Sequence to fold (339 residues):
Amino acid sequence: MSGALQHRPDLHDHLAPPGSEVNSYIKVSDVATTDNFPQEHPVYEFTSKTTINEALHGLAEHNYLSAPVWDEESKKYLGFVDVCDLLAVSVSLDSLVHLLPVGMLTSPKKSKANTSPALAEIFESGSSPSSPWCPVEEGTPMKVVLKLLATKARRVPVLSKTTGRVKQIISQSAVVALLHERLKSDVLPDTPMNSGVGIKEVLGVSENDKARDAFEMMVEKNISAVAVFDADGALLSCISTKDIRVLPRIESAGLDGVNPLDLTAREFVSMVRLATEKDGKTHAACVAVPVDSSLSVVLGKMAVTKVHRVFIVHQDHRAVGVISASDIIFILNNAQPRE
Fold:
């Protein structure tokens, strides 16, 4: 994986003030392009010959959820590969133990690390990737990118017109963070309660279920996170694909000899928190807001905590829905302001 990129100019000057157009909460001007969007992180790539285990290690090392896959033979990108894809194509979820320190591997399965298939096999299998490949060329209007992020993609790769290689990746979370800076609390007055946004079944596991059950549900349902409920059915926390990235640092949690997938969901969440605290990379495991919170509050929570989803709860903390980054972007591009 290689290829750090330079930061881009800030987009703020190219966003028209909220309310300047009657058909949306925010209007991106016609002159705003991908060249105006700030580069948040360096771009890293895998080759098609990278093994699944190497990819898991690479994503964990760089604290990324996804990366482009370049095929040197055909001189083109095969697409994005992310943690969800790597889980889905593994023989079993026990393949995750390959991320653990050698001293923690007590199962014969550790020998599989030497026979891990290459990433090319994921694309050859014809399986649908979790992160669709929707590339645009540099200089593409931001209107086009935002539409892709709202309807099709979690992240959009920007290709160089000269080399055809990825020079920038614009993600949903990066757009949410930028829009939060631009929009203020009275711009999105609707709430999940009166608009129905995000009100849906919340998939999850009990606090006493195995962490393995949570990851199996993510693979089966093709989702990136599941809720963790306490004995009374209230939202306790959540487990996401992001948590997989802390497994290489598991030793810092003081759980030598323990397979974290065999922990209960509650224990796993605590382990992740301890591991990240010791590593100095804490993150919010679960963010929730009351069902009568404004959508601006949801946007703010998402931007500040850098999570990809915010749970919606009643006063008894029972989850009644979840709002994702793609929901926010869709709302900002399609919602009608109040009269």
